[in-house]
């Protein structure tokens, strides 16, 4: 088995997880949580999203969160930005990295950001240019790279077109999103074989959802192709607000557990991770769905 | 990716699933459930266990279940037997296949069947001989092939010793059990590379538990080595009664879903499978843990 020695995990729970919680989490709890996450050995945390509160009211306190957390110098604190206005707020909040996003499928892009794919490019181009000029790292999320809830199976040529365009704008990393969590290991294998011919996999992260339990299998296939960066959400919090049935990001704790068991380093301390997951579980007042937290909760009964 | 065209799934829910349910299921519900399972296209169902009711009271109606189900000629109806007495009951009940079992680790074997490994061999030898003479198929479960809850990591030489002995007794198939659900994909890969050198993988099934969410990843690795038979429990019912924290057999519905998505045939109808899972969910009066059933239950809210 061709496996890496080290994998980088980007924690997206405070953004991708919390944006899907019906319950509004008080800012101070978010801050405490992110501070706990900063103690785990994670190298990157996406702390919030600077989108209009009309769209994601759960994250309306992004600026306050960014201003209140204790930042560790070695850590990258990232935030999602949809446009120039969001970028300005993110720059004011002085995050280390901004993440732009669009979809590889036309209808998901339209429903998610109210623009066609071609209308989205110039908006993101401005954001990326400004962010790079301000010395920020820039990440580009490509959603629905395997399947779209509206358009069905995504054309891989369309994925390449969007990815290539984002890379040419100057983004530092692509994050390829299995937004619905429907990708199977064979599909991931075939996509990576195809992408490899046209894109460098070096700056590519994979973002899997665990809707049908296939995320860890997809991680293993991705590692065999040389992917070493994965997004995950602690405890399995969150999903996609615009995709019905797309519940459950891949859980950071389950991913770290598997990687460590396989002898792959992440730099993350599992006990500290569990402490952070346990904290958010208490704040939410409901069990988190990761296997790790299910076992912990069961042991406590 | 080296993948098979067809995979055989052996349904173990009525035995491995129900033996772990605290709630006693009425015989008629078990019979209805097995009849529903017979309509799904499954080729093999383990319907119960002829062990002493002192050990597994939930399955004390094995003979009644075997006598009451409607049997389809193309289907193999199997039952677990611990010893000669259990075998006689299974022969009287006229099941098609009997399954003997033991552990690859000494302490699990001792706690599970109250004998050392060496004391177990002659008992099983008699069972296998009699069963074969009576024209039955015989399956041999080897538990704790990766890890034992008492002895830690299992020596692969011990796994080979037990497996080889069972094969020499004349069993038709080995089922290698990740009893704790702790095996990771690298470990499965390494074990299969090693086993291949000494055993034929043709008569080998893998039996994964999904305790830490790695079962489907382990299935993919196993298929890449040529394994084409897997045990699973509909809805993710069950685990190991003698292993703390070992919750959750791999769910048949999640396995079938992944295989079909990968273009691998199973002969199983997903809608019929869901109907059977839904029935047992109603009987148990609690949600089944498979991803498939979680999604179904969510859609209904």
Short description:
Chains A, B: GO terms for molecular function: lyase activity. Chain A has 301 residues and is an alpha/beta fold. Helix content of chain A is 44%, strand content 16%.
Describe, in plain words, how this protein is organized in 3D.
The structure is a homodimer of 301-residue chains. The first copy, chain A, is built from 12 helices and 10 strands. In chain A, α2 crosses α3 (62-68), α2 packs antiparallel against α11 (270-284) and α10 (252-261) packs antiparallel against α11 (270-284). The model of chain A is unreliable at 239-246 (pLDDT under 50). Chain A has helices spanning 13-17, 27-38, 62-68, 84-92, 106-113, 117-133, 156-169, 185-198, 215-224, 252-261, 270-284, 291-300, and strands at 8-11, 44-49, 76-80, 97-103, 137-143, 147-148, 152-153, 173-178, 204-208, 229-232. The termini of chain A are far apart. Chain A is 44% helix and 16% strand. Chain A is of the alpha/beta class. Chain A is globular. In chain A, strands 1-2-3-4-5-8-9-10 form an 8-stranded parallel β-barrel, surrounded by 8 helices. In chain A, strands 6-7 form a two-stranded antiparallel sheet. Chain A has one domain: TIM Barrel (Alpha-Beta Barrel). Chain A binds chain B through residues 1, 3, 182, 184-187, 189, 210-217, 219-221, 245, 247, 251, 254, 257-258, 261-263, 290-292, 294-295, 298-299, and chain B through 1, 3, 182, 184-187, 189, 210-217, 219-221, 245, 247, 251, 254, 257-258, 261-263, 290-292, 294-295, 298-299. Chains A, B: Keywords: Lyase, Metal-binding. Chains A, B: Belongs to the HMG-CoA lyase family. Chains A, B: This is Hydroxymethylglutaryl-CoA lyase.
């Amino acid at each position: 088995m061709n496996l890496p020695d080290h994998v980088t995990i980007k924690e997206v729970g405070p953004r991708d997880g919390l944006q899907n919680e019906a319950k509004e989490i008080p800012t101070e709890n978010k801050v405490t949580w992110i501070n706990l996450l900063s103690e785990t050995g994670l190298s990157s945390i996406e702390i919030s999203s600077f989108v209009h509160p009309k769209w994601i009211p759960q994250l309306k306190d992004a600026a306050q969160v960014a201003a209140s957390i204790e930042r560790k110098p070695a850590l990258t604190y990232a935030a999602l930005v949809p446009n120039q206005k969001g970028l300005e707020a993110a720059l004011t909040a002085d995050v280390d990295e901004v993440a732009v996003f669009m979809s590889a499928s036309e209808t998901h892009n339209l429903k998610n950001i109210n623009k066609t794919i071609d209308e989205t490019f110039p908006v993101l181009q401005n954001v990326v240019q400004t962010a790079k000029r301000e010395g920020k790292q820039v990440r580009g999320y490509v959603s629905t790279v395997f399947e779209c809830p509206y358009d069905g199976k995504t054309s891989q040529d369309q994925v390449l077109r969007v990815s290539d365009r984002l890379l040419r704008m100057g983004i530092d990393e692509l994050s390829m999103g299995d937004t619905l969590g429907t990708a199977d290991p064979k599909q991931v294998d075939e996509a990576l074989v195809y992408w490899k011919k046209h894109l460098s996999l070096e700056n590519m992260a994979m973002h899997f959802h665990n809707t049908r339990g296939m995320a860890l299998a997809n991680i293993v296939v991705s590692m065999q192709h040389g992917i070493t960066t994965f997004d995950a959400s602690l405890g399995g919090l969150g999903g996609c607000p615009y995709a019905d049935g797309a519940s459950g990001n891949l859980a950071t704790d389950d991913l770290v557990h598997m990687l460590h068991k396989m002898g792959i380093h992440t730099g993350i301390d599992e006990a500290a991770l569990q402490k952070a997951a346990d904290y958010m579980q208490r704040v939410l007042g409901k069990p988190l769905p990761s296997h790790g937290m299910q076992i912990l909760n069961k042991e406590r009964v």
